[in-house]
Amino acid sequence: DLMEFDLQIDGVDRGAITWGETIDDTVKAASPVVVIGAGMAGIQAGIRLSQAGLPFTVVEKNAGPGGTWWENRYPGARVDVASHQYCYSFEPAEHWSEYFCQHPELRAYFTRVFDKYGLRPHCRFETEVTGLEWDEAAARWRVNVRLGDGEDEVLEARFVISAVGSLNIPHLPDIEGMEDFAGPSFHSARWPEGFDHRGLRFALLGAGASGFQIAPTIAPEVEQLNVFQRTAQWVMPNPIYHSPVPAGESWAMRHLPFYGRWLRFVVTHLGVSAGPDTFRIDPEHVDPRNQSVNEVNAMVRDHLLDFMCEQLEGRPDLIERLTPDYPAWGKRILQDNGSWFQCLKRPNVELVRTRIERIVPEGILTADGKLYTADAICYATGFLHNEFLAFDALGRGGVSLHEQWGDTPTAFLGISVPNFPNLFLCYGPGTNLAHSAGLFFHAEFQTAHAMEGIRRVLSAGAKSIEVRRQVHDRYVDELVAEISTLVWAHPTIEHSHYKNSDGKVYTLSPWSLPRYWEITREVSPEDYRVE
Ligand code: NAP
After folding, report:
1. What percent of the residues of the chain are helix, what percent strand, and what percent coil, each to the nearest 5?
2. Is the pTM of this model over 0.85?
3. What's the CA-to-centroid distance between 332 and ligand 1, angstroms?
4. pLDDT at position 426, please?
5. Gyration radius from the chain CA atoms
6. Stretch 48-64: mean pLDDT, rounded?
7. Residue 331 C-alpha to ligand 1 middle, in angstroms?
8. Residue nearest atom 10 of ligand 1, based on CA coordinates
9. Which one of 90, 205, 319, 397 is least enclosed by Cβ atoms within 10 Å?
10. In the structure, which protein residues have their CB atom closer than 6 angstroms to any atom of ligand 1?
């Protein structure tokens, strides 16, 4: 059912809003909505609001649309989800030049969709939301924003859809002496426009999904690249990771009926049909090294090790340092066509696994007393994944969302939070996907849920909609119990942005895509109080 919904073989957008005349125009006109963020989910929300005929404003802190793909411009930034799937179901993309395309093409895609659906007049760029306040008497949100010139303004909205993303508040490590470094240093998501790395002695701190893309891209152009990796990460072979889409296939996609849809089906179906079962910790599984969680997982481990050993033939030192000591898939898996492992074999590249002692003006000093001189440092050290909103929201009775959450952010379906009526989150707590790559699917489900919530309020002539506390609590208990049976919660994984300070995982979804679709499709009175 989900594939049929997604593929839209007849060209009809299954998720389009078709409220028709059911809601009076005067009601609509009096129901402004603010969408926070013009990234993947914010654009999706804008399209649906526009179809519903509601007045809306998209507030975006950046100067253009695309969210994470507006911000991440480091050399080598590309998707790790097949491009033909990494697009809206109703905006198929037959135009990708690579199977896993790079950031300029992604930015161009989002800009094209944004303009095609006429969102620009609704969008306020370089405007940052600094806080939300619920006005009980008026049943409206006051959205505090700061404009590019530093001026503050308040927008009023009956509903707020937060589409701020989840992996975008840069995490910088807390290493002594960072401010003493003499050269330029920056986070990977803040790679300076036009920064010339050629010929530099470059220090790359962190080798997760961002760092492992930067290293092979800049290695041939820098004088020396020192990659500081704290934990070895699992890498999956993907021979077409950097491959262009051949001209014949591009032609077929444009001109052969259903070819593009078929390709999307092929690259998507596995992720859609596979649930998290292959990632489940099997209590009966015996592994004396505690390095696998079930039989399939043990096989995957062997397969990944074989790939690595093949790539690093003749370099037992690298094999030893790059073999992870936790089960495969325990962190976001990396994909390699060989570029990452080959890069580490280059004479001008060194993989450093020794603990960093401190940063000094000349470079990086490790615990063994060695100084790695550097002209520039890039911190590819990830994001604050457990902090869902950079700003606070004050809900009913002035309750602070940050205080309510602390280090354990939770939301019913990842969308609705008790005490915060008429607020819907996209990519909220418990909705990141480590087991299948379907964040576009999630954005479509979440905005559909939000739109249905809004419709319920408007059609009932009501003021607000809020998830029932017991429903939220029951859902979170279920989610946490489920997650704790999966590989990402495995105790051998010491450092992971999925875990909070207590080592618990609240950010990931344990549900298969069809299951999440099922549970988000309805906005029921048992779950929500409409007032
Ligand atoms: P990440 O996966 O969290 O990796 C951060 C790296 O920095 C890790 O190697 C980490 O080591 C290291 N690190 C963090 N704090 C450190 C410290 N205090 N000292 C030393 N090392 C430290 O972050 P990311 O690479 O930016 O990726 C984050 C997420 O963004 C990914 O999981 C993925 O979902 C998404 N992403 C996707 C793509 C893509 O589509 N291709 C690209 C980039 C990012 P430890 O492993 O020891 O913590």
Report:
1. 35, 20, 50
2. yes
3. 9
4. 97
5. 24
6. 98
7. 9
8. 206
9. 397
10. 78-80, 167, 173, 188, 205-211, 229-231, 332, 380-383, 495, 497
Residue from 102, 205, 210 whose mutation best tests the ligand 1 pocket (most atoms within 8 A of CB): 210
Q: Please list the alpha-helical segments (H only) found in 247-387.
A: 247-255, 259-273, 295-311, 316-322, 339-344
Distance 498 CA to ligand 1 centre (A): 10
Q: What is the pLDDT of residues 221-234, one digit of tens each?
A: 999 999 999 999 99
Nearest to 64 by CA among 147, 106, 123: 123
Look at ligand 1, atom 27, and give the residue with the nearest C-alpha: 209
pLDDT-derived band at 386 (thresholds 50, 70, 90) equals confident
How far is the centre of ligand 1, averaged over its atoms, from the C-alpha of 458 (Å)? 42
The tens digit of pLDDT for each residue in 139-164 reads 999 999 999 999 999 999 999 999 99
Residue 233 Cα to ligand 1 midpoint, Å, equals: 10
Give the Å distances, CA to CA, from 366 to 17, 181, 312, 353, 376: 57, 15, 25, 9, 17
What residues does 204 pair with on adjacent strands? Answer: 227, 378
Residue partners of 65: CB distance under 8 A and separation at least 6: 38, 39, 42, 43, 110, 111, 114, 119, 123
pLDDT given at position 481: 95
Helix (H) / strand (E) element for 356: namely strand 356-360
Helix (H, G, I), strand (E, B) or coil at 204: strand
Please give the pLDDT value at position 435: 83
Cα distance between residue 54 and residue 451, in whole Å: 10
Ligand 1 atom closest to 335 (CA): 41
Mean pLDDT score, 326-338:
93
Report how far ligand 1's centroid is from the alpha carbon of 457 (Å): 41
Q: For residue 121, which of 50, 174, 170 has the smallest C-alpha distance?
A: 50
Query: How many Å apart are CA 58 and CA 63, to the nearest integer?
Result: 12
